[in-house]
Inverse folding.
């Protein structure tokens, strides 16, 4: 399931550090827009070719132009370029069974000025 329904983000890479944090820096003109816990994949990276087409990596955002991909110390040296693309990972969503939901309904008010409105609309259905 797509958690936020937004388009997949893609930005150009200007640097990847070869250390335990693996800090990826994007071009200065473009904020990456990623969030902590997002997954990304890489294409067209020169040097750190192990990143090209690798399994999606979970990231930790460090700033508007930087994020961490985890340990990159065992990768080859970064030379230039690359495109990083957000990957939408499958997410499990659990719901109550219909029987349980009917026994114990959970109504979330959408208009906080009318707290009783959702309940009064359901009275005819009971």
């Amino acid at each position: 399931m797509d958690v936020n329904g937004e388009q997949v983000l893609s930005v150009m890479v200007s640097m990847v550090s070869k250390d335990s944090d693996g800090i990826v820096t994007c071009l200065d003109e473009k904020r990456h827009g990623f969030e902590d816990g997002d997954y990304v994949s890489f294409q067209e990276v020169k040097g750190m070719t192990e990143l090209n087409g690798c399994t999606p990596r979970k990231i930790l955002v460090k700033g508007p132009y930087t994020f961490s991909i985890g340990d990159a110390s065992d990768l080859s040296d970064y030379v230039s370029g690359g495109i990083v693309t957000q990957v939408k990972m499958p997410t499990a969503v659990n719901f109550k069974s219909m029987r349980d939901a009917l026994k114990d309904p959970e109504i979330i008010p959408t208009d906080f000025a009318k707290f009783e409105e959702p309940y009064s609309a359901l009275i005819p259905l009971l």
User: Anything to note?
Assistant: DSSP finds two helices and seven strands in the chain. The helical segments are 98-103, 117-122.
